[in-house]
Amino acid sequence: MKKHNLISDIIAGLAVSFAAMALGAAFGVMSGRGAFAGMIAAAIIPIFTGIFGGTKLSVSGPTAPMTAVSAVVVAFAYKNFSDNIIAEQFITLVFIILGLLLLIAGFLKTGKFIKYIPKLIILGFMSGIALLIWIDQINLLFFSKAENSLKGNIYLNVSLCLSTVVLIFIVPFLTKITIHPKVRKFIPFTFAAILIMTIFTQFLNINVDKIELSSNIISFKSFFQLLKSYLPGDEIFKLKYILKALPYSLQLLILCYLDSLLTALIIDKITKTQSNYNRELVGQGMANIASAVLMGIPGAQATIRSVLLYKEGGKTRIAPIATGILAFLLLIVFKNYVSYITKAVFIGVLLKVGWDVFEKEFLISYLKNKWYLKKERNLQQLIILYTMLVTALIDLNFAVFSGTAIFFIAKKFLKLKDVEDDLADNI
After folding, report:
1. pLDDT, tens digit, for every residue of 397-413?
2. Half-sphere exposure of 310 (CA within 13 A, CB side)
């Protein structure tokens, strides 16, 4: 390996590790398993996928779609098991089965099927995930009867949340006009916004709900002592519980498949390389098993972090591995400071994540180019809206399968084209 490539990879990994850790903590909170679980996943998953995955240059970790379903799993477990240890064992069981299913999908060479999923369905699906995030976070922010809703003055919480969103948007512009580009590349904007808001709330001693690490995790020694009790034991490793876990694992499998391989397609296009999609699924399987065993949450390839890694100068597989290792070092350094962050700040981060996930390009072109005057464009928009609403309000898997079926029926009888064929010519 060339020395300058190694240096570029480490620098890129450092830049992305801050974003990975900040989002990991936010997704951990969103999942219901806690900030620590998200941070562990943000560190462990990219190391495993960097070594064993099939995409040369990408960052994996907790993502919005995976976390949305993980939150359902956690809620189900704590509602149906009175013993919290058994509930955690069930959650871990779901995530381990996910990893095993990913391994099977890779060994069966199912990666090739990603190219058959219509772009229209992906647009609607991602927008549906954004709606899910927004609905969940707005419930927490405004409705005091919602589970895990925020304590404290609602006006303070809303102000902190909105201030965080504004900061995440304006920090890039402020640094662009005030900081040299060579220094600016090392500034993680989401992390910076969280840091600024945390210093602000601590300085003014604002009394609102803050992030809580598990009371049982006071050190890494206590963390590793917990691992054994959270692994599925004889009581949970029974057929009836495996059958209860399987539907959730299958949902996560489909999400990880879509998330990871769609990102791989994007990275291939940017870097002019060719990923091994089956190997990528195997790598994701190994990574998710490792994360589950370490009390983390599931993950997949993350598009924005992967593109950021490339833009920051990542060249080889060392870059995502460095991201994970450096994220783990950040976890060690900042673990004790997470409890200073207000929950409203993380809600702000997740609202911005929803904005990033929401597919805006087609909608902008639909309005800008007056596509609403064209029958085919209206059909495309209807399929996007259908997939989005079914994803958010009914079921993610049903949205993908039924939306795909509707598209191919429309393609056969109405000669409908996928947006992928012609969108680039009209934006």
Report:
1. 788 889 999 999 998 88
2. 19
